[in-house]
């Protein structure tokens, strides 16, 4: 879910309501519908960026509403906790913008406010070139951003796992003991990018550490996922997905983690109608809202590259892979069968950063989705908003079909997000997760 | 309002519910009650700090729950927007922790989500010594923190006032124009502490700039208030309040602002009972919960000074005024009639950073409050939570009395917070506010 009008021109459709993204009721309605339908969680993408071409925000992006404007998901998410009881709530926070004590405190407080339904999607920032200018900072190199992210998560884990032992919160009015000084402590951390001596001022919530998500398929992105993620969000075609999932599982094993403890969720675009031809009619209406200029602005946002300045009949120059903005959508178009710049633009106009959509009636898209899961070894989908900017068509048409097939369970009771997705019977990090090593004083400031 | 158990030991009382501060329902109930009673706004204090004595969080503060633990108000506030329609929502964000584009985006999004009911309390951070250690930063000098704050607010104002002209958001599905490139622009800012070239990705909400609050009575604090604040929160005794208000109004005039456009709100502690003796009984119960150790930990939080290491029979050494943590509660105890360290501890045990409470039945406390307003020239009170950790006794006993006297109006319709408090008939910054100078391209990146 994006707290904006969505990827490119779909907002122009008469039945699209994503244009209400600055109205709280839009979100309250969406959250209530998702919960009622038995959806596991709502996921917010986020970044401070926007397309930058030729040194600034291009008129195309302003006029077309391409990755611009957008709001702050954390100004919305707590409101959704107030109107739901089971729905997981996952938000992105960039390790380039938020300092570790900020992430730790926000997430720890939200773990309480949501009764353990919170997740953090760890990213190093999208639209990083725009974001760096906005924050008055030099652009940080792509791979270095992942080193920073690893140090960031490491410190955040110390704050979540290392400050409060189980039973540290006492709240005994008789004896006047609020918390037990033997079980509450400052941690210390002297990493390559972050240092800290301090205590997380929030006692642990139901999950203690929020459920950890990661997105980003570059080599350092996969490595970060393998080390820390409990769920990974991927967007690509089947072949690439299969390779990425196998590779991340391999890397996880090298870090001493159970490779099957990580859940892989594929970006799923479902274009569904009462009939197959209805679905294709929606697809045609949707594609008609997107111009090649929109596609170029969107591509610039994700990669920092301006395709309009390149020869449309040649593939990307291999040096494009050195972009410091985002590499997933550059590497995707390199290699032996590399498409031309024009073909990249056309593909971006169709699908932007997502893989090809599933199109058809409910049975057909369910078949396609099942086949994708079987082929890739993934665990599920991160369903993308439909042409209306909501999940209504998925909920109304596809969920019943998946339920009939026994592929989703829509009547599960309230539980933590980690228990809901991992099914391991514990709300806390697994024992083989690096965060578990910081428990019971192991990260203490002496 | 503090998203914690409150100032010192009141949480130990059997009828105190502030211990539920990590339960969202506690806040939803409070917000609904305040709204139903016609309260203007709910105010969240905030900081990442905690008492630091002898290089770390002292056992006293952990055991007694003194300024520790505490949560993140922004993980709570949006939920309150979902269950209220009129209540203003003001939160503190520190200019030492939050970067200007973060503050600008959070507040702009919240201005939408609350329908213009949001306010920002600009602070340079409380518990700054603890906060600096937690963020792995060197302690920034007291006066320099205010220079940073001024630069921060200046850039934030450019982002709110300078990026989007009125009418910039179009959302015309027919023509496919989302926003007008002639009316949306990047600003630029090269200040002594912050630089930025960028655009606020959030279109303006009802107020555009959140209503601006300031707290902090040191000389640089007053100057910041005089330049930027629309409402100022002060806590002191009548004599000091009168002087501070007159001084800030004088400084505002020097900045070319109408000195009466700033509203002054006094921290008001109301201890009320059905009878005067009931009220005094509550006061006694409350005082019995607070030890001198609690008072010392609380004083250390606000000032960075450890009174336990000083001679109890002497006043503070004048060099204490050079503390880099917080000066309001040092300067308060210096001068010709300076109390001894023991007397400071006793005063802090009674009232912490607040002035003396109003104590009595509803008529008596209303009389006392009226007299304080008349003596100081203030405009109203920032009511502190009562011994139960809520505003219930104020709402149930005092609001009817104030209403009978025509001092509060409890049935006003929904409007922006700025209109509610300033009554100027506009939801936007006044023309003589420095932020108004950045409108219509005056802060543009050329």
Radius of gyration of chain A: 22 Å
The tally of beta strands of chain A, per DSSP, is 13
Main CATH class of the largest domain in chain A: Alpha Beta
The major pleated sheet of chain A works out as: 7 strands, parallel
Question: What is the CATH homology-level superfamily of the largest domain in chain A?
Answer: Luciferase-like domain
Task: Report on the architecture of this protein.
By secondary structure, chain A is of the alpha/beta class. Chain A has 2 domains: 10-276 and 356-441, Alpha-Beta Barrel (TIM Barrel), CATH 3.20.20; 290-351, no CATH class. Helices cover 38% and strands 13% of the residues of chain A. Chain A has helices at residues 24-37, 59-64, 77-82, 100-113, 128-134, 142-162, 219-228, 238-254, 276-288, 292-303, 328-331, 341-351, 362-376, 392-404, 417-422, and strands spanning 41-44, 88-94, 118-123, 169-172, 177-179, 187-190, 195-198, 211-215, 231-234, 263-268, 270-272, 358-360, 380-383. In chain A, the strands form 4 sheets. Chain A has a 7-stranded parallel sheet with strand order 1-2-3-8-9-10-13. A two-stranded antiparallel sheet of chain A has the order 4-5. Chain A has a two-stranded antiparallel sheet with strand order 6-7. In chain A, strand 6 and strand 7 form a beta hairpin. In chain A, helix 4 (100-113) packs across helix 6 (142-162), helix 10 crosses helix 12 and helix 13 crosses helix 14. The two termini of chain A are 43 Å apart. The mean pLDDT of chain A is 94. Chains A and B meet through helix 2, helix 3, helix 4, helix 5 and strand 5 of A and helix 2, helix 3, helix 4, helix 5 and strand 5 of B.
């Amino acid at each position: 879910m994006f707290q904006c009008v969505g990827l490119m021109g779909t907002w122009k459709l008469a039945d699209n309501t994503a244009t209400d993204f600055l109205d709280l009721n839009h979100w309250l309605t969406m959250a209530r519908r998702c919960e009622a339908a038995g959806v596991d969680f709502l996921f917010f993408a986020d970044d401070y960026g926007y397309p930058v071409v030729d040194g600034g925000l291009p008129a195309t992006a302003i006029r077309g509403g391409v990755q611009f404007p957008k709001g702050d998901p954390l100004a919305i998410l707590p409101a959704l906790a107030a109107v739901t009881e089971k729905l997981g709530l996952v938000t992105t926070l960039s390790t380039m913008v938020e300092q570790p004590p900020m992430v730790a405190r926000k997430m720890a407080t939200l773990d309480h406010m949501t009764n353990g339904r919170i997740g953090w999607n760890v990213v190093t920032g999208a639209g990083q070139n725009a974001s760096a200018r906005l924050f008055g900072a030099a652009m940080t190199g792509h791979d270095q951003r992942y080193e920073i992210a690893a140090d960031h998560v490491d410190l955040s884990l110390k704050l979540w796992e290392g400050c409060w032992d189980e039973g540290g919160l006492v709240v005994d009015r008789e004896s006047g003991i609020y918390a037990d000084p033997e079980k509450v402590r400052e941690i210390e951390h002297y990493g390559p990018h972050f240092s800290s001596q301090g205590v997380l001022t929030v006692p642990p919530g139901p999950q203690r550490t929020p459920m950890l998500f990661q997105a980003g398929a570059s080599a350092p992105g996969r490595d970060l996922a393998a080390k820390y993620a409990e769920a990974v969000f991927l967007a690509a075609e089947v072949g690439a997905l299969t390779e990425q999932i196998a590779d991340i599982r391999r890397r996880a094993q090298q870090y001493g983690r159970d490779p099957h403890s990580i859940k892989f969720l594929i970006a799923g675009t479902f274009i569904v109608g009462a009939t197959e031809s209805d679905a294709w009619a929606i697809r045609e209406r949707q594609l008609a809202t997107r111009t090649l200029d929109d596609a170029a602005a969107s591509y610039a946002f994700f990669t920092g590259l301006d395709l309009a300045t390149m020869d449309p009949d040649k593939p990307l120059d291999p040096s494009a892979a050195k972009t410091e903005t985002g590499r997933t959508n550059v590497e995707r178009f390199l290699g032996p069968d590399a498409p031309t710049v024009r073909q990249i633009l056309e593909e971006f106009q169709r699908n932007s950063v997502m893989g090809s959509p599933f199109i058809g009636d409910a049975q057909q898209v369910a078949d396609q989705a099942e086949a994708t899961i079987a082929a890739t070894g993934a665990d599920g989908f991160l369903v993308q908003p439909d042409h209306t900017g909501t999940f209504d068509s998925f909920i109304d048409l596809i969920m019943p079909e998946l339920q009939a097939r026994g592929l989703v369970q829509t009547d599960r009771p309230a539980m933590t997000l980690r228990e809901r997705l991992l099914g391991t019977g514990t709300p806390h990090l697994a024992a083989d997760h690096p965060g578990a090593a910081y428990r019971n004083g192991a990260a203490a400031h002496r």
